[in-house]
Design brief:
CATH architecture of the largest domain: Beta Barrel
Mean pLDDT: 82
Structural class: mainly beta
CATH topology of the largest domain: Porin
Number of helices: 5
Strand content: over 45%
Number of domains: 4
Largest sheet: 8 strands, antiparallel, barrel
Number of strands: 28
Shape: rod-shaped
Distance between the termini: 136 Å
Length: 544
């Protein structure tokens, strides 16, 4: 029994740490009535009325120790029954009880039920009067003090911080009285009612609910989301809590949720329209409410966050020209490469200082004119986004000066010594010579170049046409082969010369001049056709 009691006390003490607003002492005061069952025939039952007080020392939110003191006096019920039995004497039916024991009570809410289990003693001399009247004797006297025990409970209704109403407390009251001088000892099973008020003292005042708000992240770029979260404390965990959100300049939906996400688009400047903004601080607030509580049922919190303007970048552009040198009336392509770091749409514009430029978008065509000879043409391209931010780039194209030639010039030769199996092929050495020749022709806007192909006296492979094949192959390389035309075909003339070695010579013939080269004849290009540098060696016929 002792172990069980210690365990019970330990449990209640553990529970007691839950208490927050529990009075230290409760003092119930009020009226009481006992329906007494004396267990002495023929007296069945009678009522005694009185009252008293109790003292409850609380040790937590649930557990307390109670002291109960009550006093009663007889009513007319006992006197009437005794008089009906012929007893005409004075009846003394007073009763006093004093008991102690644990009380378990719910100290929250407006209605607070409790239960109690009390032990102690009762004092009365009513049983001697009953025994004397029933048995016709006057010598019997009752044992004035007897064991008493009460088991029951009731309900308190909170009227204020220091006052509660006790409409009902009912107990099973057990007593065990005996009669001195007799063999009678009886158990009395009684009913007790108590009602009145309860005075409360001590205890901490109610802890008001609180709330804390946070913003994550607390600093963002315009357009990035911010998450606001509210956390409440000291709310009744069994009650649902509602959330109401608002903020200065923030797009908060205000739904009943513990967390809300803020759309910061436009909160540091209208980035979509290219309006540069500034760093701005904002505040989001939340109100938490317990709708089931009437008082101290809400708390408010705020969280600050900062929205920085998103960096604005102009377009990035670069310009290039191909080729970067043009002869008079020659055309080239100018290209602009542009992008927006902020992924904005772009529009393009061009301007040219010299030449004739045409085009739109990211490319155009430039044609050099006579007025550009000996100077550079500067082309400017500009990319502009929808926020009016623009970036320009330039590229230059050189136009060589016009060289006036009064007579035919010998511009050198190209030899065919490296490939004995294909002595007419334009080898790598000849290719380098021809590339330089093409550039020189581009720098001379007028006139033409005559290519004369020769043969060597030791050559026997189709010796009568090998010189012509060499000249035609040179023209094919400069107008058709590999990377495309390097020279306009109309500015090249091919001729077949005599026996002067494995070579082809170049003569620049200005407008109005004539080449007078001995033993040179114009080649019929429908008969002798140009061959690529990569053409294979022709197969020889087998002899019997």
């Amino acid at each position: 029994m002792k172990r069980a009691l210690v365990l019970l006390l330990t449990v209640f003490c553990g529970i007691s740490v839950w208490g927050q607003d529990v009075p230290k002492v409760e003092i119930p005061i009020g009226f009481s009535m006992i329906n007494v069952h004396p267990n002495l025939s023929p007296i069945t039952s009678f009522n005694v009325f009185g009252g008293g007080g109790q003292v409850d020392f609380n040790f937590g939110n649930v557990f307390g120790i109670k002291a109960d003191f009550m006093g009663y006096t007889q009513g007319s019920g006992l006197r009437n029954q005794l008089q009906s039995l012929g007893y005409a004497g004075q009846v003394n039916g007073n009763m006093f009880t004093y008991m102690f024991g644990p009380q378990i009570k719910k100290h929250s809410g407006r209605v607070q039920p409790f239960a109690e289990f009390l032990f102690g003693a009762a004092h009365t001399n009513a049983y001697a009067s009953i025994y004397n009247a029933v048995h016709g004797v006057t010598s019997a006297s009752s044992n004035n003090n007897a064991f008493a025990m009460a088991l029951g409970g009731g309900i308190d209704m909170v009227a204020g911080r220091h006052l509660s109403l006790r409409p009902v407390e009912v107990d099973y009251l057990y007593t065990r009285f005996g009669i001195n001088g007799t063999s009678y000892t009886g158990n009395q099973n009684n009913f007790r009612y108590v009602g009145g008020i309860v005075l409360t003292m001590g205890g901490a005042p109610p802890v008001p609910p609180t709330a804390s708000c946070s913003a994550s992240p607390s600093t963002v770029l315009e357009g990035e989301p911010v998450k606001l979260t509210a956390t409440g404390s000291n709310f009744n965990p069994k009650h649902p809590v509602t959330y109401a959100w608002n903020g200065n300049g923030a797009k908060i939906s205000g739904t009943n949720a513990q967390s809300e996400t803020i759309d910061t688009t436009g909160m540091a400047g209208d980035f979509a329209k290219g309006i540069l903004g500034k760093t701005t601080s904002y505040t989001g607030s939340a109100t938490l409410t317990d709708p089931k509580e009437k008082k101290n049922n809400s708390a408010t919190c705020t969280a600050n966050y900062t929205v920085n303007p998103r960096p604005v970048h102009p377009p990035v552009v670069s310009c290039s020209a191909s080729p970067n040198a043009l002869a008079i009336n020659q055309s080239g392509t100018v290209t602009m490469t542009a992008s927006s770091p902020d992924n904005r749409p772009l529009i393009y514009s061009w301007s040219s200082a010299g030449g004739q430029f045409s085009g739109s978008g990211t490319s155009g065509t430039l044609v050099a004119t006579n007025a550009d000879a000996g100077s550079s043409i500067t082309v400017t391209g500009t990319a502009t986004d929808d926020r009016k931010l623009s970036t320009s780039c330039t590229t230059s194209v050189t136009v060589p000066p016009v060289q006036k030639v009064a007579e035919v010039e010998n511009w050198g030769e190209c030899t065919f010594e490296k490939d004995p199996k294909r002595p007419w092929r334009v080898d790598n050495d000849c290719k380098d010579v021809l590339d330089k020749l093409a550039l020189r022709i581009q720098q001379m806007p007028g006139g033409k170049v005559v290519v004369v192909g020769y043969k060597d006296q030791t050559e026997v492979v189709n010796a009568e046409q090998i010189g012509a094949q060499r000249a035609v192959n040179i023209k094919y390389y400069m107008t058709t082969d590999e990377l495309g035309p390097k020279v306009d075909a109309s500015r090249l003339e091919v001729k077949q010369g005599g026996t002067k070695g494995k070579a082809s010579r170049f003569y620049y013939v200005p407008q109005g001049a004539t080449l007078n080269e001995e033993e040179s004849v114009t080649i019929d290009e429908s008969v002798v056709q140009g061959q690529s540098r990569s053409s294979a060696q022709p197969k020889r016929a087998k002899h019997k």
